[in-house]
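Support request, please re-run this one:
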Amino acid sequence: MEEKKVHYTAFGNPTHAGVWILPEGKDIEYIVIDHIEIKLGEKVRDKVIDTIVAVFKPNPYTTLDMVLNLENKNTLLKLAHKGNWEILTIKDFPVRLTYKPTSVGDGLRFSKLPPKLPTITTPTTPTNPSPKPAITDENFDKAKKFLETGTMDALKGFYEVSEEMEKRLMQKGEDLTQEGAAK
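Re-run finished. Output below.
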């Protein structure tokens, strides 16, 4: 049985997306920045600071914003062909996320490689989009977490969701709603 790789910072109560969102440490080859925001008084690593964050469109990797440090801001501006004063104009922009070791730990970075949708090659058709992975018991909790802020249609854009699994996901949502109402 193959062991699953998980970054040690994935545990606890993270406030922003970090390197731990990378699936088993591999690049997220395609994720879309919905927009960039300035956050005043944002709690980052137990400090309250003013910062700039990237807000992602619904995706299977994270529901958290990504704090833009100086390196990521500069890389993003170059990728988007924007000037220093235009960072807040970046919207609906696909990127690739990767890992980079830093002097203070592991860093989540925008890759300089272009984002790409996963594809597979078959002998009959050279560029079929890869089949979507199915929602299973193994990734059920991740799908449930995604549905806290995303929609079922958005989830189906990334995963095959069987009728039975959709009922289970929706049932779990109803259970959470009923629990919240009881409190």
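Helices lie at 70-79, 140-146, 152-158, 163-182. Residues 8-110 form one domain.
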